[in-house]
Specification:
Layout lengths: L5 H4 L2 H11 L20 H17 L4 H8 L3 H8 L4
Helix pairs in contact: 4-5
Length: 86
C-alpha cells in the first residue's frame, strides 16, 4: 500500500470537506471489492480441504492425538477444527 497526496487526486471541495473530520491525519480508503484472505492464492481452499479431510478422518475413528501428529498441528487446534459446526 502506498500513500498518495489527496491534493494530487481529489477535488479541492472534497478535501475541504474531509478536513472537517480528519484534518492532518492519515486516512485509509478501502477498495470497493475486498477479497478475503487466501482467495487469490488458493490458501483458503487448501486449508478448507485439509480441514474437511481431518473431519472425515475423525469420523472414521482417528483420535485427536493421531490427527495432530498426521497434520502437524496441536491437539487444541485439531479440536477446534473437528468440533466446529459447519
Amino acid at each position: 500500500m502506498s500513500y498518495v497526496k489527496a491534493i494530487n487526486i481529489l477535488p479541492e471541495e472534497l478535501i475541504k470537506e474531509l478536513q472537517k473530520y480528519v484534518d492532518g491525519e492519515t486516512l485509509y480508503i478501502p477498495k470497493k471489492h475486498y477479497q478475503k484472505w487466501g482467495t487469490r492464492s488458493g490458501g483458503r481452499k487448501a486449508i478448507d480441504e485439509r480441514n474437511a479431510s481431518m473431519k472425515d478422518d475423525f469420523k472414521r475413528g482417528k483420535t485427536i492425538g493421531q490427527l495432530a501428529d498426521d497434520y502437524f498441528l496441536s491437539p487444541e487446534t485439531v479440536k477446534k477444527i473437528v468440533y466446529v459446526k459447519k
